[in-house]
């Protein structure tokens, strides 16, 4: 039977999911808590990584290599770049890039290192399942490139630069790490984010206010996807 990893970065991002699991078992490993359980008969392993690319890389790797997950769904919040994304809106990544990866001094484009890719695409089957779920629920699901970096962006100039350089619609701090790990290990993955702020001068204030509500919007959607995914 397949085992689905559900990952977030912060406790608020996974709490609404853990609360719905049956047969819950907690395991502490490598300074992370992993919640094994089932949702409507589907085996899942849920964890939050802590914020940022390094922690996210560690957790995604463990979910696959130690806990044996064969698909990974990420749920969480993001800052909007695109003007048509408002607080609470859902966006799925069609690809992820690292906006803070920079060896341009050697003539390479931003986000690129040799043997890597600027933008790693997410699994098309999982994206299509998300679209079906959204249609069934009458929800609008935006789709676009999500840019990841080890920075909380609260600056309009930086956000616009990221938007122009990577053609990105939203930004966050973990998605591209999950993409690198899953791509290397050949694990289908999916990144969903609900908007918590607009990565501008009000971002930290908005983030604090909307983290919980936006995280819940994303988590509820992920649970509906698990329900739809064929076992
Ligand atoms: N996640 C949510 N909002 C963010 C922001 N403004 N910068 C980075 N990550 C975020």
Q: What is the alpha-carbon Rg in Å? A: 16 Å
Which second-level CATH architecture applies?
3-Layer(aba) Sandwich
What's the name of the CATH homologous superfamily?
Nucleoside phosphorylase domain
Please count the beta strands (DSSP E, at least 2 residues each). 10
Terminal CA distance? 7 Å
Q: How does the overall form come out from the CA principal axes?
A: globular
Structural class: alpha/beta
What does this molecule look like?
The protein has 231 residues and is an alpha/beta fold. Helix content is 36%, strand content 31%. The protein contains six helices and ten strands. The chain has helices spanning 11-18, 53-65, 124-137, 156-166, 175-185, 203-228, and strands at residues 3-8, 22-29, 32-39, 42-48, 71-80, 90-98, 120-121, 141-148, 168-172, 189-197. A five-stranded mixed barrel has the order 5-9-8-6-10, surrounded by five helices. The longest helix is centred in the last third of the chain and has 26 residues, at 203-228. The radius of gyration is 16 Å and the shape is globular. The termini are close together. The model has no long low-confidence stretch (mean pLDDT 97). Bound molecules: adenine. Adenine binds at residues 77-79, 152-154, 171-173, 196-197, 199, 203, 207.
């Amino acid at each position: 039977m397949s085992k689905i990893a559900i990952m977030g970065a912060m406790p608020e991002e996974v709490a609404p999911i853990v609360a719905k699991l049956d047969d819950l078992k907690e395991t502490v490993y490598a300074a992370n808590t992993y919640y094994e359980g089932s949702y409507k008969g589907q085996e899942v392993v849920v964890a939050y990584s802590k914020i940022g690319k390094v922690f996210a890389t560690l957790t995604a790797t463990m979910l696959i290599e130690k806990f044996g997950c064969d698909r990974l769904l990420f749920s969480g919040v993001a800052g909007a770049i695109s003007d048509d994304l408002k607080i609470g809106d859902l966006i799925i990544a069609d690809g992820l890039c690292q906006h803070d990866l920079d060896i341009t001094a050697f003539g390479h484009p931003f986000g690129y290192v040799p043997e890597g890719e600027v933008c790693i695409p997410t699994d098309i089957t999982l994206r299509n399942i998300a679209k079906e779920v959204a249609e069934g629920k009458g929800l609008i699901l935006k789709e676009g490139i999500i840019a990841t970096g080890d920075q909380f962006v609260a600056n309009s100039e930086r956000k616009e630069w990221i938007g122009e350089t990577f053609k990105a619609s939203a930004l966050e701090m973990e998605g591209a790490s999950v993409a690198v790990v899953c791509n290397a290990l050949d694990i289908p993955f999916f990144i969903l984010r609900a908007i918590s702020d607009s990565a501008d001068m009000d971002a930290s204030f908005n983030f604090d206010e909307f983290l919980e509500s936006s995280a819940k919007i994303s988590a509820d959607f992920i649970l509906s996807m698990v329900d739809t995914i064929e076992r």
